[in-house]
Write a structure and sequence with these properties.
Helices cover 60% and strands 0% of the residues. Helix 1 crosses helix 3 and helix 2 packs antiparallel against helix 3. The longest helix has 20 residues. Bound molecules: magnesium ion. Magnesium ion binds next to helix 2 and helix 3.
């Protein structure tokens, strides 16, 4: 199975692709939740390192390193989802977005509120 593009590739496509990758290498023995959570954070730190000592509005001219670290973070997150055998992560994300929407109602938290008129 080949991953296609953002419009047609599903979360399950990523999960299956990564499960195969891990299974083929017999790496499940190394994929405890703790190890994967640590690895995810190390990759997030590698992403942060790109911005270290740069101005606040810094965006690298070449996005390759940035997008590669973003992919590493996503890959470890999906590996964690797989290792915990989470059934429907999409629904979990949906519920979290809904929870955030309730926690931060637009009327109260829109940044537009703080702009000068
Ligand atoms: Mg990396």
């Amino acid at each position: 199975m080949e991953l296609q593009n953002d419009s047609i590739t599903t979360m399950m496509d990523f999960r299956k692709k990564l499960k195969n990758f891990v299974d083929e290498r017999d790496w499940n023995q190394y994929h405890s939740a703790k190890a994967l959570a640590i690895a995810l954070n190390i990759e997030a730190a590698e992403l942060l390192e790109i911005f270290l000592f740069q101005p606040d509005n810094f965006i690298p001219e070449n996005l390759d390193s940035l997008t590669e670290e973003m992919a590493d973070v996503f890959i470890y997150l999906m590996n964690l989802v797989n290792s915990l055998k989470i059934d429907n992560f999409t629904q979990i994300i949906k519920k979290k977005i809904e929870k955030n929407a309730k926690k931060y109602p637009i009327k109260e938290f829109s940044a537009k509120k703080y702009k000068k008129q």
